[in-house]
Amino acid sequence: MPLTVIKFSSEDCGLCHKMSFYDQKVAQELGLQFIDVKMQDTAMYRKYRQILLAQYPDKSEMGWPTYIICDSPEGEFQIVGEVKGGHPKGEFRNRLQAVLDSTDVSQN
Fold this sequence. Notes:
The chain is an alpha+beta fold. The chain has one domain: Glutaredoxin (3-Layer(aba) Sandwich), CATH 3.40.30. The chain contains four helices and four strands; from the N terminus they run βααβαββα.
């Protein structure tokens, strides 16, 4: 199962919307699954809330958007990294790649 990028965003966040033009495409080009969780979508948010709260117990430090990279998001998830805030496409790709590079050691 490939690693998954979970995007936590808000419908009224302009930066989140701007990132949505390329964030999923970039993640998929890097071989990652992508799940978009809007905070207003209570069912989706409830499903992945424990992953967000594992990283940000009181949500105060999270960015808009916050991308959490983890494996097994549906089960015993393990967070391997994150990308916070909005970035130009190339920078976003570099930051995701840096997370992947740092996890390569632990992958078989």
